[in-house]
Design brief:
The structure is a single chain. By secondary structure, the chain is an alpha/beta fold. Helix content is 40%, strand content 19%. The protein has a 5-stranded parallel β-sheet with strand order 1-2-3-5-7, covered by helices on one side. It has a two-stranded antiparallel ribbon with strand order 4-6. The chain is globular, with a radius of gyration of 16 Å. The two termini are 31 Å apart.
């Protein structure tokens, strides 16, 4: 990856018509090198899998600060449109609580208020996870989660 070569320039030079799409876990969007590369990207699809620090630690298994992820999303959405991708799953059969879903929808609303959220994609695990305690949530739950975000005025797709 070279910051002096723009991804869309390479695509255009080869006569391709596919969008250049960045899929990101949202953790490094604040870095200058990443920000500087974004103008060459057609679409940014950024992860937001939680509404609270506790669920974030559980679902993402990281020590990265949740507030930094939220700030990255707000700042990026303020500079350019983004799509938020959100994975919901069960842990030992337990779905995210209503409070967690409400908190997640609030975070989505905060990002949308800071800039442009083109869409939110809500989905669950599609194959057997490495951790046997993790499972898929039912479609009805995904629909309920999507409705919580729609109430914040964003377009939501259940995928």
């Amino acid at each position: 990856w070279s910051s002096d070569v723009c991804s869309s320039d390479l695509r255009d030079a080869h006569g391709l018509t596919v969008p250049i799409r960045l899929l990101t876990n949202s953790t490094l969007l604040h870095r200058a090198r990443v920000r500087d590369a974004l103008p060459g990207i057609d679409e940014v699809w950024a992860k937001l899998d939680a509404g609270t620090e506790t669920w974030f630690r559980k679902v993402d298994g990281t020590t990265f600060p949740f507030e930094r992820v939220l700030r990255n999303l707000r700042e990026t959405a303020a500079r350019r449109p983004i799509t938020i991708q959100s994975l919901f799953c069960t842990f030992e059969g337990e779905e995210p609580s209503d409070a967690e879903i409400t908190a997640w929808a609030e975070r989505v609303g905060e990002v949308a208020a800071a800039g442009t959220v083109e869409a939110v994609q809500v989905y669950t695990v599609a194959r057997r996870p490495a951790d046997a305690a993790v499972g898929a949530v039912p479609r009805e739950t995904l629909v309920r989660i999507a409705e919580a975000a729609r109430a914040k005025g964003v377009r939501v797709e259940v995928v």
